[in-house]
Amino acid sequence: MFCLAMATNNSSFKFSLFSHLVLNLLILLATSTKTANSYAFSIKEATIEGIQLAFRQNQLASRQLVQFYIGEIRRLNPVLNAVIEVNPDALYQADKADYERKVKAPGSLVGLRGIPVLLKDMIGTNDKLNTTAGSFALLGSVVARDAGVVMKLRKAGAIIMGKASLSEWADFRSLQAPNGFSARGGQGKNPYVLSADPCGSSSGPAISVAANLVAVSLGTETDGSILCPSSSNSVVGIKPTVGLTSLAGVIPVSPREDTIGDICLSLFISDAKVSSSNGSSISVDYNDPATKAASYYIPYGGYKQFLKLYGLKGKRLGIELSALVIDHLEIANVNSKNSISNDETIAMLAEFKLALNAYLKELVTSPVRSLAEVIAFNNKFSDLEKIKEYGQDLLLSAEATDGIGKTEKAAILNLERFTRDGFEKLMSTNNLDALVTPRSYASTLLAVGGFPGINVPAGYDSEGYRAKAY
Questions:
Q1: Are 369 and 361 a contacting pair, CB within 8 Å?
Q2: Which of 2, 50, 182, 213 could cross-link with 208 by S-S, CB 3.0 to 4.6 Å?
Q3: What is this structure's pTM?
Q4: Residues contacting 40, CB < 8 A, separation 6+
Q5: Closest by alpha carbon to 204, among 191, 192, 223?
Q6: Nearest to 226, CA basis, from 214, 211, 241, 212
Q7: pLDDT tens, position by position, 228-284
Q8: Prior bond to 201 cis, omega within 30?
Q9: CATH class in words for 2-456
Q10: Cα(269)–Cα(445) distance, rounded to whole angstroms?
């Protein structure tokens, strides 16, 4: 597994998640995998491209696909704890897609239409599903509307398959809680090595894709929450530029760093097109003002037009921990990474309290209306939330903050300085188009600067991530 990170002093590049470089990296890597035309179709291990082809050739119906995934979830989820809820309306949505395909409705054979998508349990849906961040404190809460990305998925014809598990409160509950654990979802397990760390916080989306419980899922990332579980579970994870995907209706951690991205099984070219571009997750959402600023950098016609074979020719990559291009790549002030992590935590604690309180107040109904009430709920139902075992120290630390004061402003300025004099200077000085690192080691650099990244399965380590454990 490796992670591709990007940055430049040109601000327009920062907002080009699916720039020529990233998309062409997808193509380069995709050419080393089989295409859907080279083998008989099988739902298991199927990519979006393969599913679309099977739809067109009448080898597969959406109902059949959803039934297969439901069966796999019933069979494997008791071990993997990857899915919190299955949408009771998933088969109805599948039947609708099949009918549209039968009558040859416009657009019925393209994009995500009729393809099931699992959502991390941070992404709000105004339907029969709960949105709880993995906590019983939000069970039964009702959102005012679908999250912005969910609206776009529905418009694209995707089937909302259900909610995937996660590290509770996006890994912002306690430093003692293990990755992939939530009170509602239990302990998520890596399908390759059940005893291995599945990483988080988007553990469920990554586990689900790796275990063939769905072909594509949506996760959220603040710092490493898509890239790390994608690496640990050997799937593809895309962390978009902050502001490029709408956060409206998503349970927040830090609006300054939060973003939503795709997790897929394979790097087929059309998967990159469909899941990320045709999925329509990238556009202005007036419920999230940050998307308006980002929209100015989205090229007319979207990003899929830049998919070109051999598009990496002439590009310059910095390889961390490798002699290629730049030996022993170093970043200015990297010896102060601990202080940068501390500054990030200071800012995020205050941001989390402010953003979460605002989110909770906007819910139509909810058992809790503030972070303080979440903490009180956890104390009252400590057995449900495993408070005695894992605690809630991060929630308590966040509640102790009092807005964005001098300390928080100073921390944010340090993060901006680190980005400008560190990562951006590194890229500019060495004339790099991208930085490649093992696993998700660059996640903090990307997080504090709001930059995009992609994780690509590219090998296995000594712990034996080779065969799925089930």
A1: yes
A2: 213
A3: 0.90
A4: none
A5: 191
A6: 241
A7: 999 999 999 999 999 989 999 999 999 999 999 999 987 643 444 444 444 445 668
A8: yes
A9: alpha beta
A10: 27
